[in-house]
Amino acid sequence: MKKLSLIAAAVSAVLFVAAIPAKAAPLTSEQQDNLVKIQTILEQKPELIDGLLTSLNMYIDQENKTAVTLKKYHDWLYNNPDLAAFGSENPKLTIINFTDFNCPYCKRLDPVLQRLTEENQEVRVVNVFVPLQQREVAGIDTNSAQYALNVWKNDPDGYMKVHDYLIRKNGRHDKSSLERVAQVTNTKMLLDASNTLKPTVDKSYQVFSELGLNGTPAMLIGDQILPGYLPYDQLKPIVEEALKKLS
Predict the structure, then answer these.
(1) pLDDT tens-digit profile of 12-31?
(2) Any idea what DSSP says for residue 170?
(3) CA 183 → CA 28, 120, 179, distances in Å?
(4) Are 60 and 93 in contact (CB under 8 A)?
(5) Contact in structure between 14 and 38 (CB atoms under 8 Å)
(6) Where are the alpha helices (DSSP H) in 132-197?
(7) 6 partner at 20 to 30 Å CA-CA among 65, 80, 116, 247?
């Protein structure tokens, strides 16, 4: 009897987790089939139950913490003039993109996001720069994130040109690469003074960490957190579905 109770508890926890993303939506037939498979596995291997319950409880706890964090920082993320953005000026959907100019997958995602905003005038992308791979650059008192934010703040019309040059470089930026971008975009003064944007980058780290994220890129789209790179063909239907929910 105790074994059956544990199995029932584990399956109930799985059902609860399955319902988290869309609280009002019934389980699909595929999800129902998977739950039956899970119950069968647990009946055959009851030693897995304790570990499964622990993992599920940790997952649920993180989901709850994430919801609280999103509410706490909603205005900072979605209505913050200090964060660089592109796309619609009056969006129906805003995508929050945690990104890093030194991250190869972030560089691959950027043109995908730009294409989506060009094709859909209801979408805006807000970039939250989290330079995980390079917080400091040897020989210069700034980094790519602080530089980009300073251009956004003081030369918004010239921002996308700087942004595109920063994205285009293969590998990590160094003093020479940042100075080259500043030279060709006539933003040398903004590069030199960009360490004043360090508090904004530090705040970005704080929000990123409190959301439980540990790598870039990572996106917030509607009520979903999407870690990692997604190609255009996978990201487009997610964006379309999020827009549909807002209609």
Answers:
(1) 455 444 444 445 467 888 88
(2) S
(3) 56, 33, 6
(4) no
(5) yes
(6) 144-154, 159-168, 175-184, 188-192
(7) 65
Separation of alpha carbons 137 and 222, rounded Å:
35
What letter represents residue 43's amino acid?
E
> Does one domain contain both 121 and 158?
yes
**pLDDT digits over 195-245, tens only?**
889 999 999 999 999 999 999 999 999 889 999 999 999 999 999 999 999
Closest CA to 187 of 161, 207, 216, 205: 161
- End residue of a domain, out of 12, 36, 65: 65
DSSP state of 47: G
Count of Cβ atoms closer than 10 Å to residue 118 Cβ: 11
Per DSSP, what are the bridge partners of residue 224? 221
Indicate yes or no: pTM above 0.70. yes
Q: Which residues make beta-bridge pairs with 93?
A: 123
Q: How many CB atoms lie within 10 A of CB 108?
A: 14
Closest-CA residue to 153 (of 190, 124, 185):
190
- Output the CA–CA distances (angstroms, integers) from residue 244 to 210, 222, 241, in the order listed: 29, 11, 5
Do the strands 93-99 and 123-129 form a parallel or antiparallel pair, or are they unpaired? parallel
State how many domains the chain has. 2
217 part of a folded domain: yes
Per the domain annotation, does 102 fall within a domain? yes
Q: What's the CATH code of the domain at 234?
A: 3.40.30.10
| φ/ψ (deg, to 5) at 186 | 55, 45
The answer on 121 and 229 residing in a single domain is yes
CB-CB contact of 16 with 60 (8 Å): yes
